[in-house]
Amino acid sequence: MHFDVIVIGSGAGGGTLAHRLAPSGKRILILERGDYVPREAENWSTRAVNVEGRYQTREVWRSGDGTALHPHTNYGVGGNTKFYGAALFRLREEDFRELRHHGGISPAWPVSYSDLEPYYTEAEHLYQVHGERGEDPTEPPASAGYRFPAVSHEPRIQQLSDDWGRAGCKPFHVPLGVMLDESDRRRSRCIRCATCDGHPCLVSGKSDAQVVCVDPALEHPNVTLLTGAYVSRLETSASGREITRVLVERNGARETYTADIVVVSAGAINSAALLLRSASDRHPGGLANGSGVVGRHYMGHINSVLMALSRCPNPTVFQKTLALNDFYFGSKEWPYPMGHISFVGKLDGVTLSAGAPKLAPGWTLDLMGKHSLDFWLTSEDLPDPESRVTLDRDGGIVLTYRPNNGEGHQRLTRRLEGLMQQQSRCAVHGHECHQGLFSRNLFIGQQIPLAGVAHQNGTVRFGTDPTTSALDVNCRAHQVDNLYVVDGSFFPSSGAVNPALTIMANALRVGDRILERLGARRQVAAELTVGAGA
Known about the structure:
Layout: E1 2-8, H1 14-21, E2 28-31, H2 46-51, E3 61-63, E4 68-69, E5 99-101, E6 104-106, H3 113-126, E7 129-130, H4 155-166, E8 172-173, E9 176-177, H5 209-217, E10 223-226, E11 230-236, E12 243-250, E13 253-264, H6 268-277, E14 302-310, E15 322-323, E16 340-343, H7 349-355, H8 365-370, E17 372-379, E18 388-391, E19 397-400, H9 406-421, E20 434-439, H10 448-451, E21 483-485, H11 500-518
Parallel strand pairs: 1-2, 1-13, 2-10, 3-19, 13-21
Antiparallel strand pairs: 3-4, 5-6, 7-9, 8-15, 11-12, 12-13, 14-17, 14-20, 16-17, 18-19
Helix pairs in contact: 1-5, 1-11, 3-11
């Protein structure tokens, strides 16, 4: 069966691209290896989601030393956006330039921030991002404001924001993709629950790729979605210059599809694996891998979850509203980037049992969950050609990662500890209310960078030189004329914020290039969106 465009994957990249192409009238096929995440009570169960891993893949990868690796990733319509915390940040303008870190150089991108800026604005509007311009001291220039107001802080978070402000910092509201209308909570789709971050949304109130992009795209008769469709291989013409067949395994059978254009968007790890599996006489090192970079330069950020305990309870329900970027590019004392401080969703004793943090004296897990502020710290890891995706002899995924640039992250942690010690005096316990920071090992028994692949990027990098990059500046393969890649694979560096909005914005940008190639006009008026109060 022939299509104008085949999109492999339906997450932040593939889902957004399909939405962009849908109004054109061109025949679009979306191939998704997973199914729709079932709507069920377990969506809101921290035990089912975090302890039992109800929605995670049962696939087993291998780490570089050959040990089994159980990736914390999900296959389904909407990809990992079904489970993300919906924090939708732009990369900083400086992230697109060469940046010197303590651990080395973060390379410049082949496009500038200004090239992507209009698409960032479109992506923020499409994904209904709530935020406030001008609060974040590192925020890059924007051509428009957010269409929805920032999500308000609950009292404990507002107190912390005020404390940080008095300490000379510039805390700000996290830009969040949620369909929340705080002026009309009765009609608001988002109900501001405690199980947003890391959970699928039972009421479809989170701006994930399925709700915002895939489902509206399917309203167009020219768009088809096949679930349970695992793409095993891409085959090319005799010249190797174009993909002629997409081989799919579905419902125990093998199927073949063709298209004028094929877009790979399976996530940085699986996209690289697919290209490596598609090696041939013309592409002996993997499809579009004449440069040898496919699978290399894997990045996933240096991430930590840190709990700040206090004697007073933290009754916050929706915690992920506050962030701090004062140390993103360093400080007077440390001239190198450190990273980003924000929050995860509120942790409870059940969730903590999955990570078994070191217990503070006199504290149970349940008590820790009720008395903690739960921070998420992100620092940039640098591209290393030896951090890479490869295949074993059976075609299974092998993920090798060499941690780097860790000093900035350690200093960021110490900065947070210092800020927590400067909190205003508690009326009950005085300055002794704060009990310290405790690291929560999210992935006990596994290395965090390997198992925690939510921020995966960098394995099929783009650039202007075909000898050092797999894709051109429009994310088209240098060596295969009708192959594009639109997930996080194209990143040459990772920055220190969630990559999702950059993936979405780039998908819109590449979508416009594909529409031009197909001779189709973009039909803005025909785009379907979902209202916050719907």
